[in-house]
Amino acid sequence: MKLNSYRFFLFSLISLFAGSISIFSQAPFNFLPVLSFSFPFLFLILGAENFKDSFLKRSVRFVYFGSIFLYGYFFFGLSWIGSAFSYKLEFEGLKFLSIFGLPLLLVLLSSPGWLLTALFWGPRLQSCFAMAFGVIVGEYSRSILLTGFPWILFGHSLSFDDRAMQISSIVGAHSASLIVVLFSLTPILLINKKTIFPGLITASILPLLIFYGSTRIPDSLNFSEKSFLLVQPNISQDVKLSRDSFQFSMDKLINLSSKNQNADLIIWPESALPVLLSQDDQIRKHIMESIGGGSSLLTGNIRIDENGDYKNSSFLIHENGKIISSYDKVHLVPFGEYLPFSGIIKKFNFLKVISSDNGFSKGLSFDPISTPIGLARILICYEIIFSKEISSSDSRPEVLINITNDAWFDKFSGPYQHFENARFRAIEYGLPVLRSANTGISAVIGPYGRVLSKIKLGEEGAIYSLLPQRITNTFFSKFGDFTLLILIILCCICFRKNLMREYFNDKK
């Protein structure tokens, strides 16, 4: 083998290692400094060759090493998904495919970002910005294509500190990734005499974020007179989906809910009971009579509509047992709740979705529903990771209610990562988040993203609380990812010379 071949192999291993250790920046580890090692390693590998080589050659190199980096990141960060997509499936190989195939798919969806990085690569300072913008373009690309998967964004690593997270009230989680990457590339700038001053500026990013957050978060919150009870039954997935265990599950939920202290609203998690509540008046009446206290109940449940389609739904049930309103989940999980390209796949008898033989049909509206504690936007499980969907309604809700069944996600990193998404939504929109999970993490999250009370993963319990009041509209809630678009446009303007060099081959 030639020396170049050895170097290629070595660079591949380093890229994979750097991406793999980057996952320690995410929950439950929350060790942000690791990115100050991983991103500089990747930067040096990408810039190991002359930046003046052809765009095609540079693009191939950037996409390859960047993809290797992200594959390690996604593989170790999303390994828990194997348990979610392999529960009682006829095709046992799906666990293998989900663990190894999902990271590959996300890598492919992120590749436009590496092309942008290659396009704007140049002198050291410019290259740092090029990498930062490339990363967020890649993240945004995977967040919208094939229904999107904005999980473990690099911006989520700011969750190590409540104060650092507050920047998302202005720019959102996506643009926060730009800030994180620039900060992580500080060592690259400091080791070069020409870029020491910019390096000092990027090094000050984190202290400035913490300072801004400390000025934004008040010493106390305002609460309404409306009260609620969050219930976490901690029922295992085997028991939860079994009709034979229906009585056990219902008794546990009722017992935890009986401590409601006359709460205006009791909240149960996603698919709380393995029974069709909309078709069983007697069970609904029994539940509400057993709970007592004049409370209403919001619970996740499966619904069959007039066309015979299954919906992953939530019901608001009055104290008399009647269903007042419902919400059908709009953003379904591919392969988990519905089967993309099902007509083709079923011909090969290849896969079977988790939920049912036919999967779920999506709901039609994101509109909030009226509840005893105010206008509420219901987010079922996976929907909490999409910030743009909260702003899709004309009416601003008073609270976000996230019901979920994280028993699918095992007990390692998945539930913690999911939980941090909920905290970012609270900050982005200035709204409290009430989260009821089957096995955790259930919590009351204030409009500044602070956890006011919670039930840990793997524990059962109930939280009684008054409703934290929402705050005024945040900058992000008004403009969304508009800031991200502006930043990308400014990037293109600032680095326009590179474009001219590529297309007109202007050698100087």
Short overview:
With 508 residues, the chain is an alpha/beta fold. It has helices at 3-21, 35-46, 55-77, 81-84, 93-120, 124-144, 162-165, 168-184, 186-190, 196-203, 205-216, 237-240, 246-257, 281-291, 342-347, 414-429, 475-479, 482-494, 496-504, and strands at residues 223-232, 265-267, 296-304, 310-317, 323-328, 369-371, 374-380, 399-404, 433-437, 442-445, 451-455, 461-468. The strands form two sheets. Strands 5-4-3-2-1-12 form a six-stranded mixed beta sheet, with helices on one face. Strands 6-7-8-9-10-11 form a six-stranded mixed beta sheet, with helices on one face.
Provide structural commentary.
This protein is α/β, with parallel strands linked by helices. It folds into 2 domains: 3-217 and 482-504, no CATH class; 223-468, Carbon-nitrogen hydrolase (Nitrilase/N-carbamoyl-D-aminoacid amidohydrolase, 4-Layer Sandwich), CATH 3.60.110.10. Helix content is 45%, strand content 15%. It contains 19 helices and 12 strands. It has helices at residues 3-21, 35-46, 55-77, 81-84, 93-120, 124-144, 162-165, 168-184, 186-190, 196-203, 205-216, 237-240, 246-257, 281-291, 342-347, 414-429, 475-479, 482-494, 496-504, and strands at 223-232, 265-267, 296-304, 310-317, 323-328, 369-371, 374-380, 399-404, 433-437, 442-445, 451-455, 461-468. The strands form 2 sheets. The chain has a 6-stranded mixed sheet with strand order 5-4-3-2-1-12, covered by helices on one side. Strand 4 and strand 5 form a beta hairpin. Helix 3 packs antiparallel against helix 5, helix 5 packs antiparallel against helix 6 (124-144) and helix 8 (168-184) crosses helix 16. It starts with a helix and ends with a helix.
